[in-house]
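thread: overnight batch results

M.L. [08:02]
morning all. the overnight job finished for the chain we discussed friday. pasting input first so we're all looking at the same thing
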Amino acid sequence: MVESGDGVRKALTPDEIAKVKEEWEERQKQKAERAKEKEKAKEKEKEGSKDEGAEMDKSGSKDTKTKPSKAGTSTPSTTSTSTPTHQRFTLHRDFFAMRLSEHRNRKRIAQAKELAPRLPGVPRGNILDSV
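M.L. [08:03]
and the structure it wrote out:
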């Protein structure tokens, strides 16, 4: 039932319902196709980057400093959903957290220096003299 502007309800016909269902199903199919295309594009992109890395390793032109190796320790491989724009430099989340905490500490210190002159001073008299 659809309500028109004057408050009167009109019944939907089965043809209208079928038409809306068909349109909805078509939209869902298109969304599924787009999602599949995006997945294929991501897979091709990943394969292309892996191939480039293998070619660089074989030719020996890749910088050895970019991959520090630690003997005896296993590092978990981190897979990110977005590929970094630059292969050599990436900002690690721990470094970002450290920089953020340092920034907060600087703000806190500046606020304390600003507030300190307005605070009352320490009492200098002897406590026993006032009793």
